[in-house]
Amino acid sequence: MKVTAVLRLDPPAGDRGRLLGCLRRFNEAAQCLSGIAFQEKLWGWLPLQRRAYRELRQRFGLRAAQAVVCVRKVASAYKPKARRSREASFRLLGSMPLYKHSYKRDGTISFYGFRIPFRAGEGVRLSSDCEAKLLFDGEKFLVHQVLEVEEKACPPPSDHLGVDLGLARVAVDSDGVTHPEAPHPFTPGQLRGLRKRHARLRSKLQKKGTRSARKLLRKRRRKERRFAAHVNHAIAKDLVERAKRTGRGIALEDLRGIRSRITARKAQRRDQSSWAFAQLRSFIEYKARKEGVGVALVDPRKTSLRCPGCGHVDKKNRPSRDRFRCVDCGLAGPSDAVAAENIRRAAGSRPNATGSSTES
Ligand SMILES: [Zn+2]
Fold first, then answer.
1. How remote is the CA of residue 319 from the centroid of ligand 1, in Å?
2. From CA 257, how far away is CA 259, in angstroms rounded?
3. What does each of the 360 residues of the chain score in pLDDT, given as a tens digit?
């Protein structure tokens, strides 16, 4: 499977400015090339390269390898036919693909005439066989390097950690733990408050509709996305670690093809879709595969209505959105924890539930 390693570059003071200049030149070149491609309808990389390679080299001073990736980057922006109706634009400090780069034994990475020290996560075996790109996040230079790693074999687990991804709380597992767990500083209340605040701000800015409001809105959206991704990573990490530590697989509801198992009220629906649940699911599956933890996807029907005590299924078991109370045997608890337990059982009762549904 492929994973992406994130390296942080530590350029010496003098190289910082040079790196920024390099990124800027590259994206200026991409923008210029994009104009040529658009006006002359040159969509493929080869005609584009024939047409503009020399210009890229001479006018923007790109190195040969850089000019090649610049052409590819622009061509890939126009690859979908739907994107050919307007000129593609590139941010001045947008990312730059690396090509013919290499990792040196002395802890430096070399590319396009640079040789820069970097830090990587512990135990990461770097290789430049797959694609990589250089990014500037406004402060630090990062390299995203794709790596091909061997998947750990997962033995079929005897038990699962059931996980309910829900409305009131982002994720609750069948051990009754709410995620994100401490020490991550987000309580469910804070998260909910933040999400509401984001939504309010967004609608305010949307109503305003001025140019600066739109710009602010874009900035807000980016910030929100970064925040959601950060929380989702923390949750996925918690869950996978917990399952691995206890020798269990992870069980999730199989929501493919189902918009939502819950016929939620409108406000709740917005709540649900405003959180990046699809991303959270993919983070969980991805981290689980990396760690050799099996993921079972179970039928989502009735997971919120069945009583894990006596098996009684009844709409009346849910007196409110957040509470579960079995009308038959009286078992009661938070509805998401009950759902998580039902998900755990559904995975356990299926023979060979492991991994079979996560292959892509
Ligand atoms: Zn019951």
1. 14
2. 6
3. 788 889 999 999 889 999 999 999 999 999 999 999 999 999 999 999 999 999 999 999 999 999 999 999 999 999 999 999 999 999 999 999 999 999 999 999 999 999 999 998 777 889 999 999 999 988 899 999 999 887 776 667 889 999 998 766 788 999 988 887 765 556 656 666 777 787 788 888 888 878 888 888 888 878 878 888 888 888 999 999 999 999 999 999 987 654 444 444 444 444 445 567 888 888 999 899 888 899 999 988 888 899 999 999 999 999 988 899 999 999 999 999 999 999 999 997 544 444 444 333
CA of 331 to the centre of ligand 1 (A): 5
Q: What is the DSSP string of 212-233?
A: HHHHHHHHHHHHHHHHHHHHHH
Distance from the CA of 236 to the center of ligand 1, in angstroms?
31
For ligand 1, the distance from its centroid to the CA atom of residue 266, given in whole angstroms, is 29
Say what the pTM is: 0.61
Which are the contacts of 30, defined by CB distance < 8 A and separation ≥ 6? 70, 73, 74, 90, 94
The type of residue at 281 is R
